[in-house]
From TrEMBL, chain A:
Entry protein name: Branched-chain amino acid ABC transporter permease
Keywords: Cell membrane, Membrane, Transmembrane, Transmembrane helix
Bilayer disposition of the protein: Multi-pass membrane protein
Source organism superkingdom: Bacteria
GO cellular component: plasma membrane
TrEMBL record, chain B:
Source organism: Agrococcus baldri
GO cellular component assignments: plasma membrane
Keyword terms, alphabetized: ATP-binding, Nucleotide-binding, Transport
PANTHER family named in the record: CONSERVED COMPONENT OF ABC TRANSPORTER FOR NATURAL AMINO ACIDS, CONSERVED COMPONENT OF ABC TRANSPORTER FOR NATURAL AMINO ACIDS-RELATED
GO molecular function, one term: ATP hydrolysis activity
PROSITE patterns with a match to the protein in the record: ABC_TRANSPORTER_1, ABC_TRANSPORTER_2
Protein name: ABC transporter domain-containing protein
Region (Disordered): 1-21, 302-335
The keyword Cell membrane is assigned to this record: no
Amino acid sequence: MDFLTILNNSAAEILSPSTAAFALATIGLNVHFGYSGLLNFGQAAFMAVGAYAFAIFTMQVDPTATLGWPMWLSFVVAVLVAIVAAVAFALVLGIPTLRLRGDYLAIVTIAAAEIIRFTVRTSDYSAVTGGSQGLRGQDYKGDITGLNPLTGTTYGFGPWTGTAYDTWIRILAWTLVVVALILVWLLMRSPWGRVIKGIREDEDAVRSLGKNVYSYKMQALVLGGVLGGLAGIMYVLPRAVQPDNFATAMTFYIWTALLLGGAATVFGPLLGSILFWVLLAFTGGMLSGLQQIGAFGDMSGTQAGQLRFVLVGVALMLLVIFRPQGILGNKKELSFHV
Amino acid sequence: MSETTTDGTAPTATHPLVDGEVAPGCKKVDPIVVADGVIRQFGGLTAVDVEHVEIPRGAITALIGPNGAGKTTFFNLLTGFDRPNKGSWSFEGQSLAHVPSHKVARRGMVRTFQLTKSLGRLTVLQNMLLGARDQRGESFFAALVRPLWRAQEQSNTEKADSLLARFKLDTKREDYAASLSGGQRKLLEMARALMSDPTLVMLDEPMAGVNPALTQSLLDHVKGLKDDGMTVLFVEHDMHMVRHISDWVIVMAEGRIVAEGPPETIMQNQAVVDAYLGAHHDTDLGTLTNQQVAQIHEAAEEEVPVGLEASATETTTTDAPAEPGATAHDEEGKR
Ligand SMILES: Nc1ncnc2c1ncn2[C@@H]1O[C@H](COP(=O)(O)OP(=O)(O)OP(=O)(O)O)[C@@H](O)[C@H]1O
Ligand SMILES: [Mg+2]
């Protein structure tokens, strides 16, 4: 068992573009649940909508090839298409449910996430969505690869070494995370954020003070959903589009990261996402190392790999019992749960 | 029993607030709220059935009645938190039927809740600031640019601080509202409602759970609202408060307006006594002799035509604030 490799692999997660994408989705969920009290159990679906809209637009329309657009324009427009798709998805979910009690949104988002996943998986649309195979990365990465200003072979140091393309995506994804964090920070210190937090506490009270609660909830749902959609793009830029990446498990990883870092804090989602992936990589490495030296008897490598999710579950339980507000959360804010 | 009503009281035929004769649903000289035929049913139960009522402008009006009379439901209907089965009502001459609750509040009709709704995980100051109207920083894009709303926020904060001082909450300014006591939350909710400079404040049991020493200063404060030109409508079970500060009293029972009048004489009105106590309210059923029981049955026999109604009102209430002197007198008059 090579302990150094395990540490190295775990440390690599800290700055990986996937962690950035995941953090972006968690920041979006934080806007929903942490600040607005919206129970969204379908954040993975927002990621799927963003990822597929981006990839499908790039592949089907391909403005660089067919219309002769410059690459940056094609890329920006593809991102805008993904944003529009995420907004539309948020509206479809929100219009019927946001006037009702909170649980309805929860049910509808769970169902909608599965509908999205089955729709893109079905072979009927495989000409467009690739069915259960998904979409090949090289089919939609043309523009972004062409835009890469880095020309060397490898960049970075230590665990954070990567190819020029990886580093380029890393820079993009983390820049987006920083922008999202600043956006959330600016909003939540403003009167807009105050209304949103008020709605989380008691809708009727906020209504009685003359605020249009429905409209504010919709704005929050759209904002968090757009962040989820952008996360989807960032998630598929380093890999291919795989429908099963956007399954319910992804949503619950995002929830775990949010609760770990601390809901309703600006940096909680970031810290939670990094810790979550580092811990997952570390326990995964340790478990397979231990399995290889025979510490688990007859257990196969795959079984040992599954064991880490048991550990994640136990860790989540301990967290909720001993630090329910998360790492960055304010004990006072959570302990008085009216 | 209804014919024999006002034996013991001098009937007040007119009043400066009233246009015409004083009666349930009477016209006011200058009404701010006018409601017509408002009916709200929950299944088979008619919680509110108000034929006509007018709330006088610039006055403090108390809405009283036994538990379950429909006062809170009527508040909910007026402020758009509930939809009536039928009816129309207006505020300052403009119809409010089908207007959503937040628009009602924006028009200057702001209410508080019987079960307090303080926003627990916001500080007391944040709670207050939420009450201010027309905040530029509450729109999504303006929120991102602080200079657009900083000055307004500053002046709102000053206003909030002065209100908090008046309600003796200034020491709690930075505390989470969830850490306040029940009474303090009532105060916070009232202060928050005042942040919007409403034209009409509707308070649902503002004094429930507030300590007596503070009650006095609050009463003065509510009176102060009237001096500032606001109209106040409040629900209250504490008759001391009702008598002390209200200019007009409206009595509800079983969803209907059963009486109206100035606070000095309203409790002598037989309809009010019946509403609160039912008939035979001055008899202690625990220590009856057989003879008394027989008498009651006889009396009940005579009341057969209205027997149904009488038995329905009998179910009420505990903290009955009627004047024992006056009511005993009435009962004697009957015999
Ligand atoms: N949401 C509801 N569903 C069913 N019945 C209701 C509902 N709200 C109120 N009621 C009924 O309507 C009647 C009036 O209730 P309401 O709360 O208006 O009384 P109230 O006059 O405010 O009483 P209290 O002085 O105890 O606050 C009661 O009989 C109550 O049971
Ligand atoms: Mg009530």
